[in-house]
Give the backbone structure.
Amino acid sequence: MTASGDLLIERFKKAICQKLKEVSGINEVFYEHSRMAGYPRVRYIATVWTSDSALKGTLSCTVADNKESSTEVDRIANTLLRELEGFSFCADDLMYYLHSGRVSPLEEADKTVRQRLVTLEFYAMGG
């Protein structure tokens, strides 16, 4: 990826982190991982490929909670899907659009943790 592509993905990750916190209503939102994270939490990654001067890719958000019931993790995952599907953001240095969202359960290796995967495709361009 080019230097401008690297800068663009960093701007995208920062903007998405803020949006995930806003939409989910929780502050435990991390890129890739955090050993110190509490519950509930959202871990996100962006799989990116370039297309000319823009980025296209997949945003994958793992929503996790350690309550006995899956009610809270389902609520957060469905809220993310509802609020982010078709969402667009535009600023001087970044424009992105999220689409084609879906939610799926994840098999839990740790049976005390409930997880859902929210996946959205994205398109991002720099200003």
Residues 17 and 29 are 7 Å apart (CA to CA). The first helix runs from residue 3 to 24.
